[in-house]
């Protein structure tokens, strides 16, 4: 995020020409500046722009939800549902990495409206990991929870994510 904002400053104030301040600030925040020198002209390609979008999106959602919970603690249910819906829509749009980042954040929050929404977030995180070809992380998320006392919808989701298709078929009959 720091590098993105500093690069923005370069484009606005010096036509993209690298300054010593850009290198100093970025270096202080852990950015690798080994291939950049004062006087170089920076550009932005589509990969950089996509990454910048992801970083700004992630920070914006996290900040909005932290502030929402802090300023309006009575709206935790709406905040939890909103955050889960944002992440679910990212999964639908195949933005799995961003969804994983935000769901890890969501699950790390100290309080949730109830256990159901927290488990929905966990299922969505497992789904995002599975869809991003990370089956071990998917299984790891699912193993963190005891699903035995949950409703059939959760049991079905867990069975599908664990590729337990015989169990999934049985649960599908029950759920439907």
Report on the architecture of this protein.
This protein has helices at 2-14, 20-28, 46-71, 76-92, 96-108, 115-131, 135-143, 152-161, 165-175. It contains nine helices and no strands. The longest helix is centred in the first third of the chain and has 26 residues, at 46-71.
The radius of gyration over CA amounts to: 21 Å
Taken in chain order, the helices and strands follow as HHHHHHHHH
The overall strand count is: 0
Largest sheet: none
Structural class: mainly alpha
- Proportion of residues in β-strands: under 5%
Q: Give the distance, in angstroms, between the N- and C-terminal Cα atoms.
A: 46 Å
How much helicity do the residues have? over 70%
Shape category: elongated
Any low-confidence stretches, pLDDT <50, length ≥5? none
SS field, number of helical segments: 9
Mean pLDDT: 95
Architecture blueprint of SSEs:
Layout: H1 2-14, H2 20-28, H3 46-71, H4 76-92, H5 96-108, H6 115-131, H7 135-143, H8 152-161, H9 165-175
């Amino acid at each position: 995020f720091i590098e993105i904002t500093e690069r923005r400053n370069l484009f606005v104030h010096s036509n993209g020409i690298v300054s010593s301040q850009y290198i100093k600030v970025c270096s202080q925040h852990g950015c690798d500046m080994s291939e950049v020198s004062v006087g170089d002209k920076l550009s932005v390609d589509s990969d950089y722009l996509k990454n910048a979008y992801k970083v700004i999106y992630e920070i914006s959602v996290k900040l909005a939800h932290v502030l929402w919970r802090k300023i309006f603690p009575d709206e935790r249910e709406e905040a939890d549902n909103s955050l889960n819906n944002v992440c679910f829509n990212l999964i639908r749009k195949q933005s799995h990495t961003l969804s994983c980042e935000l769901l890890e954040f969501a699950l790390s929050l100290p309080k949730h409206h109830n256990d159901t929404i927290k488990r929905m977030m966990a299922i969505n995180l497992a789904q995002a990991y599975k869809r991003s070809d990370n089956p071990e992380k998917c299984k790891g998320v699912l193993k963190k929870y005891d699903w035995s006392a949950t409703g059939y919808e959760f049991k079905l989701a867990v069975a599908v994510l664990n590729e337990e298709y015989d169990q999934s078929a049985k649960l599908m009959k029950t759920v439907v």
